[in-house]
Amino acid sequence: MRTAALAAQHATAAQAQRIVALADALGSCEPGAEATTEADIGFHLAIAEASGNFLIQQIVVSSGPLMRVAVPHARRTRQTAEDRIETVARHQRLAHAIAAGDSAGAERWMLSHFDEAIRALLK
């Protein structure tokens, strides 16, 4: 969660724009498509990069193979259009908090996102 707060504090304008663009891309991807997984992984990597913490960046990079399994599994649990819309909206709220430099909001939305993702994986 601290990664999102750090990203809100340290993101350049270009990094913030990329984070928002990746969150928006999730909404235009076909559910279950590989592009959705890649956009989601790219989103989290962009946040890690914007945090300015090299160790966090390396952790996110190294978790890529796990995310390539976990992200599609979690997305399959979101069976209704409303579930998918809310998942994208959660990413967008996080992205916009980072872009606005709102570290408390970014931390709150990352926690919400992780809580929901873990619930989905445990289904």
Structural features, described:
By secondary structure, the chain is mainly α. It has one domain: Four Helix Bundle (Hemerythrin (Met), subunit A) (Up-down Bundle), CATH 1.20.120. The protein is built from 7 helices and no strands. It has helices at residues 2-10, 13-28, 34-51, 54-62, 64-76, 81-99, 103-122.
SSE topology:
Blueprint: H1 2-10, H2 13-28, H3 34-51, H4 54-62, H5 64-76, H6 81-99, H7 103-122
Helix pairs in contact: 1-3, 1-6, 1-7, 2-3, 2-6, 3-4, 3-5, 5-7, 6-7
Keywords:
mainly alpha; 7 helices; Four Helix Bundle (Hemerythrin (Met), subunit A); 123 residues
Largest sheet: none
| H/E series | HHHHHHH
Mean pLDDT: 89
Structural class label: mainly alpha
In total, how many beta strands? 0
Task: Give the full name of the CATH homologous superfamily.
Answer: GntR ligand-binding domain-like
Straight-line distance between termini: 23 Å
Total of helices: 7
Overall body shape:
globular
- How does CATH name the architecture? Up-down Bundle
Uncertain spans:
none
Q: How many structural domains are formed by the residues?
A: 1
**Which topology does CATH recognise?**
Four Helix Bundle (Hemerythrin (Met), subunit A)
Rg calc: 13 Å
